[in-house]
Design a protein that fits this description.
- By secondary structure, the chain is mainly alpha-helical.
- The chain has 2 domains: about 130 residues; about 35 residues, no CATH class.
- The N and C termini lie far apart (about 170 Å).
């Protein structure tokens, strides 16, 4: 077998004409040659497939852009609605805050007036107390040096009255001694 294989290799090398080439290829079953027309047809089909893939890719990109735009628009619409409700809530909260501030300022004014009235009343009461104390002091006479040996109030009142009438020559009514 080895001699046959070498002979075949020699013959394959010595063949130079196209006819002989074809004969060699026809004899050799391992090497298959495809005709040029079928390759051109395959190339055309491949180009068409490439073109279809490219068109599909651009269509998918366009569809993705469009869906992204729709999603973005929907999200923007949701955010606008949320922002609108937040603004309304904020407006209501501000209104409530203003009402509460007004109530507080009204209460403060009321308390301020009550404080002023209380201050006036306290001043009036103090002046009345001062006047009453002055009247009490005016009606009181303190005597010193009068010798009274009894501890009963009626006897003391009697002795003070006689003393005032005899020595000072003033008639007075002694209420307590």
């Amino acid at each position: 077998m080895s001699s046959r294989g070498t002979e075949r290799k020699k013959r394959d090398r010595e063949v130079e004409s196209p006819k002989e080439n074809e004969q060699v290829f026809q004899r050799n079953k391992i090497t298959v040659r495809s005709p040029l027309q079928s390759r051109e047809k395959e190339n055309q089909e491949m180009e068409e497939v490439k073109k279809m893939i490219s068109e599909l890719a651009t269509q998918i990109k366009d569809d993705m852009r469009e869906s992204n735009k729709q999603l973005l628009n929907e999200r923007n619409a949701q955010l606008k609605e949320e922002l609108k409700t937040i603004r309304e809530e904020l407006k209501q909260a501000r209104g409530q805050l203003q009402e509460q501030n007004q109530e507080i300022s009204d209460k403060y004014e009321e308390w301020k007036r009550a404080k002023e009235e209380m201050g006036k009343r306290v001043g009036e009461v103090e002046s009345q107390l001062d006047r009453i104390e002055r009247e009490k002091r005016r009606n009181k006479v303190v005597m010193m040096g009068l010798e009274i040996e009894t501890g009963e109030q009626k006897q003391i009142i009697g002795k003070v009255t006689t003393f005032l009438e005899e020595k000072v020559k003033v008639e007075s009514k002694v209420k307590s001694a």
